[in-house]
Amino acid sequence: MKAFWCLFALGIFLQIPEGQAQCPPPFETFVLGGSGVEFCLYFDMEVKRDWHEGRTACQSLGSDLADLDYEDLHWQVISYIHKHQECPPGFKVYILRESGMEMCLNFASDVRRDWHEGRKYCKSLGAELACLDYEDLHLQVIDDLYRTQDMLDEGFHVGCTDEVTEGEWLWTDGTKVNLSSCHWYPGQPDSVENQNYCCLYQNNYLYSSCPNGMKLFTLCMI
């Protein structure tokens, strides 16, 4: 059984009718890890489109907008994108040891910014404040920081906050943060109301809740 999808550059996923024996060019095959169902995805990176333009373009292929809520399909798509993208200037490539997925990180150490200023800066680069909850990425970052003498006494803002609801930590994409993971420093995050932003703090570089308005360097990720 196959289902057919295509992906446009703005993150728009589209479906074309079932019934074909194999993925038609230029679609590629993705196999779900649990059921073995095969999906055909098309990554069109030539033209950036808005939502309606993307839908029109895929309808010209006999397809329509779709979602990725099928087992591990979304994760496979994320992995594919990271493996096939090139990090822009100023970003360093990190390769996850288990999956081989590539992540692009920028250590913005030119100016110390508060959390919101840092996020605005990341967005100006086409990036977002970093989330390091990917396999061994956090460990690789910590190792790099320990190897960089100029960074040893510095901290970095990363992309989660509980500014909306005290104690409810969310990533910038709205997903909940795992507060029991080993990424957090013991005892963190605390329940202090004026410490609403996550950072990698000096000496250990585990997640900590840092005071509002605190000026740190910024860690951006694509």
Number of domains: 2
**Helix segment count?**
4
The assigned structural class equals: alpha+beta
Secondary-structure element series: EEEEEHEHEEHEHEEEEE
Helical proportion, percent range = 10-25%
Question: Can you tell me the residue ranges where pLDDT is under 50 for at least 5 consecutive residues?
Answer: 1-6, 8-17
CATH class of the largest domain: Alpha Beta
Instruction: Kindly report the name of the CATH homologous superfamily of the largest domain.
Output: Mannose-Binding Protein A, subunit A
Number of strands: 14
Rg over CA atoms: 20 Å
Question: Overall pLDDT, averaged?
Answer: 83
Shape: elongated
CATH architecture of the largest domain: Roll
Largest sheet: 8 strands, mixed
Fraction of residues in β-strands: 25-35%
The CATH topology name of the largest domain reads Mannose-Binding Protein A, Chain A
Terminal CA distance: 34 Å
Question: Can you give a write-up of this model?
Answer:
With 222 residues, the protein is α+β, with helices and mostly antiparallel strands. The chain folds into two domains: 2-80, no CATH class; 87-221, Mannose-Binding Protein A, subunit A (Mannose-Binding Protein A, Chain A, Roll), CATH 3.10.100.10. The chain is 19% helix and 29% strand. The protein contains four helices and 14 strands. Strands 7, 8, 9, 10, 11, 12, 13 and 14 form an eight-stranded mixed β-sheet that branches. The radius of gyration is 20 Å and the shape is elongated. The two termini are 34 Å apart.
Break the fold down into its secondary structure elements and pairings.
Blueprint: E1 2-8, E2 12-16, E3 28-31, E4 38-41, E5 43-44, H1 51-59, E6 64-65, H2 73-84, E7 92-95, E8 102-113, H3 115-124, E9 128-129, H4 137-147, E10 156-161, E11 170-171, E12 197-200, E13 207-210, E14 216-221
Parallel strand pairs: 1-4, 1-5, 10-14
Antiparallel strand pairs: 1-2, 2-6, 3-4, 7-8, 8-14, 9-14, 10-11, 10-12, 12-13
